[in-house]
C-alpha cells in the first residue's frame, strides 16, 4: 500500500534518543491520519541505512 511517512536527515547527523522518540510520535500520527486500521493490528517499521 506504499509508504506512510518519510524523514530525511543531513548527512553526518547523529540521531539521539529524544529526536528518535519525537520521530516515532510523528510516524504514529501519520499512521493514525492515513491508515487508522493499522494501529489496531500488528505494525512493522522499516528503517533504511540504519546500523
UniProtKB/TrEMBL annotation:
| GO molecular function, a single term | nucleic acid binding
- One Pfam annotation reads Transposase_1
Q: What is this protein called?
A: Uncharacterized protein
The top of its lineage is: Eukaryota, Metazoa, Spiralia, Lophotrochozoa, Annelida
Amino acid at each position: 500500500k506504499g509508504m506512510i511517512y518519510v524523514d530525511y536527515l543531513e548527512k553526518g547527523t547523529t540521531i539521539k534518543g529524544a529526536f528518535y522518540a519525537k520521530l516515532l510520535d510523528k510516524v504514529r500520527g501519520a499512521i493514525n491520519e492515513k491508515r487508522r486500521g493499522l494501529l489496531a493490528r500488528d505494525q512493522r517499521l522499516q528503517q533504511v541505512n540504519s546500523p
